[in-house]
Amino acid sequence: MDPVGLVAVATVLVAGMVFGLWRRRHDGRLAGSAVKSQDQGMTDGVRLEPALLAKLGVEAAPVTLLQFSTAFCAPCRAVRRVSAEVAALLPGVRHVEVDAESHLDEVRELNIWRTPTLLILDAQGREIRRATGVPTKPHLIAALAELLPAQR
Amino acid sequence: MELDPRGQRFAAALTTVVITLVLVTGSGWLALAQAVVFAVAAWNPRRGPYSLIFRAVILPRLGPPAEREPAAPVRFAQLVGFTFLAVSALGYLSGVTAAGVVAAALGLLAAFLNAAFGLCLGCEAYILIRRLKYRNAESV
């Protein structure tokens, strides 16, 4: 019996439980863009550089779901499925999936730290919402409804 | 190659138990055994010893999976686990017990989060590691 090891086990299990529960609550939440832009507008998302978006393969669309994934990311698959379903359901929504590893410059520029990360961009290329983890389909549709008033 | 996610959860649960035993007993040899299990599973997740147990004992009672997951994230996670347990075994067996405990504790955290919550820390951190490496390469 190693008392130090015993303490280590207890510490890890408690810390893991707390982290796991916290993560479960926050994962996939569609938060507003972290940085607020200075210029006024209907939405207060940050406008991303057109050149940057072009590099990521984002084309003009009323709304773009920009997903960052890696090959070693199991939940990326779930985000891909939800995003593709929503894009098929709502006209004007385009889903773009990017391999984060082959776009490290853009990943740094956009402050992406883990995959999957999903950005919601409006027609002007402003980041309106961002989710790390897997957002639920209803939450994603609700967030998009704010951007697509003409459809309702 | 695609895998049954329930098999991976089972393997993570068994790994959690084994690493707990490593820490409680302070056995470097058990850490080494777990490192070997990780290495085999990283090479081929379907041939991993815990996957074999899952298919022989648990799967016949469950029936076929509702969905399958890609193997690449799982293999990467096994590689991360192997690194932790290899360092741990080295630490315990060479008398640097503190290194053995810390490395095993990190492995335990990853295995526990995977077993209890389905989280894969190593997979999520992959892009973080790439980002940091990239920055270092650039600043040199």
From TrEMBL, chain A:
High-level lineage: Bacteria, Bacillati, Actinomycetota, Actinomycetes, Micromonosporales
Residue spans crossing the bilayer: 6-22
Alphabetical keyword list: Isomerase, Membrane, Transmembrane, Transmembrane helix
Stretches assigned to the Thioredoxin domain: 29-149
Organism: Actinoplanes italicus
The protein's name: Thiol-disulfide isomerase/thioredoxin
GO MF annotation: an example: isomerase activity
Stored Pfam families: Thioredoxin
UniProtKB/TrEMBL annotation, chain B:
The entry's keywords: Membrane, Transmembrane, Transmembrane helix
Pfam families to which the protein is assigned, alphabetical: DUF4395
InterPro entries tied to this protein: DUF4395
Record has Transmembrane as a keyword: yes
TM regions (residue ranges): 12-42, 76-95, 101-129
Highest taxon in the source lineage: Bacteria
Name the UniProt record assigns to this protein: Uncharacterized protein DUF4395
Species assigned in the record: Actinoplanes italicus
